[in-house]
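User:
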Amino acid sequence: MRFATDSEIANWDELVAANPDGGHILQTRAWGDFKAQWGWRPRHVIASGDTVDLAILFLTRKITGLGELWYAPKGPGIIRPQSMVDALCQRRLFGPAFCVKVEPEIAQGTDLGTWEAQGLVKAPQDVQINRATIIVDLRPDEDALLASFKSKTRYNIRLAQRKGVVVRHMPVNDKTIDVMFALMVATQQRAGFTLRQRDYFAGYWQRQHACGQGDFFFALHDEEVLAGIFVTHFGTRAWYKDGGSTKLHQELMAPHLLQWEVMRHLRARGVTDYDLVAVPRPQEMSETHPMYGLYRFKSGFCDTVTDFVGTWDLPLRQTRYSAWNRLGERAAQRWTLRARHNIFY
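Assistant: Predicted structure:
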């Protein structure tokens, strides 16, 4: 394990795309550069992997009194559990770190005995909300893909088309950012979830769009915006990153048509897997779950829930790691929310 050279960082996304998992949007250079504006230091690391070297983006942060926290968002990009052991075996690179957090997209139920033998432990809480998700296979032709949706979803798509809803691929600028954020605020007020500040969203929307890794799509009726999506894409993979809608004209089913047109756009650019991001885990599936409404909507496009192993920790200084879990992480999260109106991770 070593730090990437300047030339490797310059071609970072090509290295990430060559990872066994095909690369993840949260491992790209754009994401690391963006998070550098919000208290994190990106560290680009090359480590041994399956048959090729792994390119791993770590985000690091100094925690007063404890040392450094290292976090690989949706990484390393492995497909075999043993590769995690190979990647983390040379720990001197972590220097003053007290904990390394990893969260590769390994399926829940996989034997992780090799991780536990090397000191990895399941984190008390997952960082990313999409431990469980729904991934739509975009490889079938359009007719077959549409036919794979639930009948109610197909009906809603056609209803929106008949009622005059249209979907437009929009530029990312100050005007569209304001519209998109307003849609998210309207959704947040209905659902009650925590929403980061506008500048945070605007920062990565603009950066990822400029890198060719993200786009706005709006659903309109008589030139009135009813729903919007920011979708990210990297290689053959794409993610439903952000979305929002108004309460107006809900009977027009604009979000259903919006997702369908986004899928058609992604297929045209060679995307094969569209991650709808975040649904309840199978064992937590209940109408009382706060994300059950999202599941009902997303499962109309595919009813297979993919459950990952989530965030795992490599404690490097046990006393400090225990203090972080006992008090430090909650304190950091509260302070970040109150002082900076943001979320720690």
